[in-house]
Amino acid sequence: MTTKHEQILTFIDSLPVGEKISVRRIAKEMKVSEGTAYRAIKDAENKGFVSTIERVGTIRIEKKKKENIEKLTYAEVVNVIDGQVLGGKSGLHKTLNKFVIGAMEIDAMMRYTGAGNLLIVGNRTDAHRHALAAGAAVLVTGGFDTEEEIIRLADQHELPVISTSYDTFTVAAMINRAIYDQLIKKEIVMVEDILTPLERTVYLSPTDKLEKWYEKNSETSHGRFPVIDKQMRIHGILTSKDIAGFDKNVLVEKVMTKKPITVIGKTSVASAAQLMVWEGIEVLPVINDHQKLIGMISRQDVLKALQMIQKQPQVGEKLDDIVAGGFKETEESKDTSGARYQYEVAPQMTNQLGTISYGVFTTILTEAANRYLRSRKKGEVVIENITIFFLKPVQMEAVIEIEPKILEVGRKFGKLDVEVFHQGNIVGKAMMMVQLMERS
Description:
Elements: H1 4-14, E1 20-21, H2 23-30, H3 34-47, E2 50-53, E3 57-60, H4 74-80, E4 84-87, E5 98-101, H5 106-111, E6 117-121, H6 125-133, E7 137-140, H7 148-157, E8 161-163, H8 168-187, H9 191-194, E9 196-197, H10 210-220, E10 224-228, E11 234-239, H11 240-243, H12 252-255, E12 257-258, E13 263-264, H13 269-279, E14 283-287, E15 293-298, H14 299-311, H15 319-325, E16 328-329, H16 331-334, E17 341-344, H17 358-375, E18 380-390, E19 399-409, E20 413-422, E21 425-437
Parallel strand pairs: 5-6, 6-7, 7-8, 13-14
Antiparallel strand pairs: 1-3, 2-3, 4-8, 9-15, 10-11, 11-12, 14-15, 16-17, 17-19, 18-21, 19-20, 20-21
């Protein structure tokens, strides 16, 4: 049986794209309190099919597919630039393909402006008119308004005309930054992208007998099953270790592991991998915001996803990507059993004093340890503990050498000593405890 909250979400999802939503309307139509309606609308906003815009209200938008996440809706642009919608509010849910800066004559400008575009321009009414006629939305910079005729055209074509107090250069930079952030999000694989969905998940009930475990084990060859009630809420997990020594007629709830570790769909695969290594578990139940089971992920799922991520072309570079791209293996290390890497400290990696920042230094040390252990075919590495010593400051554009050494290594754990040199002098070092995730 679905809850009122879920019923409201289903109702909101059924509304046409572009429709305005209010707490009062939802409360009245669904016969719930305004507090319940408000929480459901906020949840819908988090799920990406509702957007709230200052001075406009809350509207139903089209939920973007993951492959189109790098595109922004006009509603998102309004929020990014702290804009005000002058007209064409019914088109805020639409997605823009590109933006055009209107710093040229009308004829030249219109050669680059077409349907699905956003023209960024000052208080040039003629440019506003031509852009709307071509199917493009308009962003008016400098805090200017536009004429009533333009607002009527915007409403007629369902294309937003937005005003912002920022100048053209700042606005373009802000939109670029938003698109760039979306690209980075696109690269991060979430648990929801790789999970085995509920309809293909084998589970048990708390009132089942252990005999049911043996049946499911024989059918699937799996040894771990989530235990859920009729409302799909998870109560525990039952493994081969749990049932050892018990009669087959004992109830599942008597021997299951209660309060199992779970993750939500929006957890990154990398975080799930760390959790599985630290806790020494093979499978993780995946739940939604209402604590209901939506699927399962296994250690093999996570490893395959991590290997796939490494093969993907990187689109938006994060700090870790920039640091990793600067590593060079020295010629000396190729002739020895150890490893020695070179790295040049870029200006953007320094603090206000012009010396290497703590965060970058930590990333360089962990990346060196990762590279070294991967080269020794030790699999994926999860840093469990790290102690860093700064011995001397490292200036920008300095070329440093990083030398990791294995102190102790087993099948699941390792200890490393990493030393950093500049011009032959030691400038820093770290002691690391790591857990190893073997490749399957």
